[in-house]
Amino acid sequence: MLEPRGAHRSTIVYRPVLPSDLEVLEQIHVALFPIRYEKEFFLNVVRGNGIVSWAAVDISHSDSHNGKLVGFVTTRLILAKESEITDLLRFSASKKDITLVYILTLGVVEHYRNHGIATSLVREVIKYASSITHCRAVYLHVISYNLPAIKFYEKMSFKLMRRLQRFYYINGQHYDSYLFVYYVNDGHSPCSPLNIVAAVATYFRDLFKMLVSKLWRNEERHIPRWPKCKETNSLLITQNKRIVVTENSASQCV
Ligand SMILES: CC(C)(COP(=O)(O)OP(=O)(O)OC[C@H]1O[C@@H](n2cnc3c(N)ncnc32)[C@H](O)[C@@H]1OP(=O)(O)O)[C@@H](O)C(=O)NCCC(=O)NCCS
Fold first, then answer.
1. Is residue 147 within 8 Å of residue 156, measured between CB atoms?
2. Alpha carbons 147 and 113: distance in angstroms, whole number
3. Ligand 1 close to Cβ of residue 126 (< 6 A)
4. What distance in Å separates the CA atoms of residue 117 and residue 72, rounded to the nearest whole number?
């Protein structure tokens, strides 16, 4: 049981979304989002049909023992290879069962905001994703003008990976979206700083090995020094190119 911070005297508990939440869940979605969701979506949420969700309920002022729904997060487990972010993940082609958790919707009723409820809901999602061995990340899209949500995900240490032009089409207008990713279970992006460091380390290790072996062979064969340098140079360019590609990918996806 969790006490939200701030002036509220409410007692908020977190539990799965239940069939009894159907009506309120739908009402809150209509109130909070510019996108209209089909009835089937809500039915799938409350029945847990392919959707895993959590509810934040206020049990302090409610007659119902299930409490009053004041927040929710809905997610779907998807195969990484079928997602749009395969390029943001490092996994071998042999690992076909790598999964991701996609956040479909997250919302907190206005009166209950800024009391850490969304934080607790998203922590549940991260805990769930981390508990799935083959899961590598939690990700989502946020419409580009939704500053509270953008700040929220940044505060939760999600990485802003890219801006998708004209991703949403709402009421006859296009809007960009931001793609946020939170890596779990040692999942990481191929363009993470760690990968760049690893690539540089590998480059220097290979260069060193190559120089040593060349030197060794030249000593034996008495080959003049300059062709050796030429070869080293060409390798340098190739290797540098590879690193530059990694750096470029980083600037593209952030
Ligand atoms: C975004 C939303 C879910 C946040 O819910 P919440 O319960 O108020 O969030 P929390 O209290 O856990 O906030 C945690 C952090 O998010 C950020 N944040 C939340 N609301 C913010 C706001 N209005 N402005 C700026 N930052 C905000 C802050 O960094 C905050 O940390 P702080 O309290 O230490 O400053 C809520 O505003 C909401 O339901 N919005 C409408 C629906 C929506 O936009 N959903 C997200 C679409 S993906």
1. no
2. 14
3. no
4. 9
Task: Report the separation in Å between the CA atom of 151 and the middle of ligand 1, taken as the mean of its atom positions.
Answer: 7
How far apart CA 240 and CA 234 sit, in angstroms, is: 10
> Cβ(151) to ligand 1 under 6 A?
yes
Cβ of 149 below 6 Å from ligand 1:
yes
Measured by CA distance, the residue closest to atom 40 of ligand 1 is 107
Beta strands in the chain (DSSP E): 12-16, 52-58, 68-79, 99-108, 135-143, 159-170, 173-183
Counting ligand 1 atoms within 8 A of each CB, the residue from 113, 139, 147 with the most, and so the one to mutate, is 113
Under the banding of pLDDT at 50, 70 and 90, the label for residue 253 is: very low
Are 182 and 123 in contact by the 8 Å Cβ rule? The answer is no
| Sheet bearing 52-58, strands edge to edge | 12-16, 52-58, 68-79, 99-108, 135-143, 173-183, 159-170
**Do residues 186 and 194 make contact, with C-beta atoms less than 8 angstroms apart?**
no
What percent of the chain is predicted at pLDDT more than 90?
A: 61
The most confident of the ranges 20-29, 203-212, 233-242 is 20-29
Is 152 touching ligand 1 by the criterion CB < 6 Å? yes
Question: For residue 147, how far is its CA from the centre of ligand 1 (angstroms)?
Answer: 9
Best CA proximity match to 178, nearest among 192, 168, 164, 166: 164
d(CA 105, CA 107): 7
pTM above 0.85, yes or no: no
Q: Are 73 and 29 in contact (CB under 8 A)?
A: no
Under 8 Å between Cβ of 157 and 166: no
